[in-house]
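SAMPLE LOG
Freezer: B-3
Tube label: C17
Construct: single chain, 389 aa
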Amino acid sequence: MKKLLPFLAIGALLAFLVAPMATTQPTGWLSYLLQDPQGTVQFRALDQYGFPMMIGHGTVLPTTANSGTGPMDGEVYTIHATGVTPDVQVYSSTAAAWYTFASVDIAQTFTGTQTFSGAVVANGDFTAGDNEDDTFTVDAVPAFRIKHENFGQVGCAQAFEEDLTAAVVTDAGENIILMPCSQIGVIAYRLEAPDGGALAETLAPFTVDGVLSLDTFADDVANEGVELVFGSFGPDMLGAYFDEDADVDMYAEVSVTITDFSDVDDLWFGWIVQEAYDDPPASDTFDTSALFVISDAAGDLDIETELNGGGTLNDDTGVTWGDGATHVLKVVVGADAVEFWLDGTQVTQANAVLNMEATDRAVVVFGYTIAAASDPGITIAYVEIGQEQ
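STRUCTURE (predicted):
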């Protein structure tokens, strides 16, 4: 009997140690020996004092109820499940909360001072801050692949004729708006006043902060209008432009609101290969172009292309522009193709295709003419020109 006592004692000890495993996970040094791979908390490495040593994992965060010991300060734990990106968290006893580690493949919110070493690559937006006290220091030359203008704080803008003398207000007057505070920097514009008189309006495109208003570029007279060239001193000059030989796709995007479409005779936006202004301006007079076009009072929105004056190729977008509506128009041009995007959705192209020729260079234009003795109330919230990423 005496010989059996040591074995009985060992058996009793093991029974005592293993019995709690039916409901809780082991901690301390036993956590290296006894684990339940089927439990929600599958592994926790705690030292002899019950403090975390390595990274635990399971399908839920550990608690006293599911693992026998509550979360520890500084404990690192990974939640994982089939088909879901692992969620790595660290526990703070001060905050009594788990904090998620930053991950490179999900959206993160950064607070406080952040230091980045090496390349930071993101497919979405990066926001340095949300108030005037936030700063973002750049210690290298920034590479701007996008020029964006939302017409906020453009009080420095001044209008001139192309030779930097006083702007002219007569028919076929060719002027520029210099915006030294802007990424785009300049907007060229040509006036259309077929009645032969001078423009009665006083140019005031930025009376409302954050909006480019076209009301004062034309009188309320039928067939008057204007053509704008964004980021360039004119349609036959360089500035913000696409170069067919560069083999880099470029896009132009604009957000436009039209108050009363029955007052529009013709409207266009997109890319045209460099050429002199047309007189009178119109959507179908360009030699080579890729444009969104509206050419009837009903507001029917089309896409059109033309190559070397060979005739217009047209597709209907299926959208009728209603009074007061806002739409975002985007035209992407490449070495041998063009794409049209309307409110974030690509427009189906059956006819409107374009393969520019070697040496072709294109600039971004927006224009319209009036159909009646009242203004359609056209405003532009932003314009953006950039390389496809």
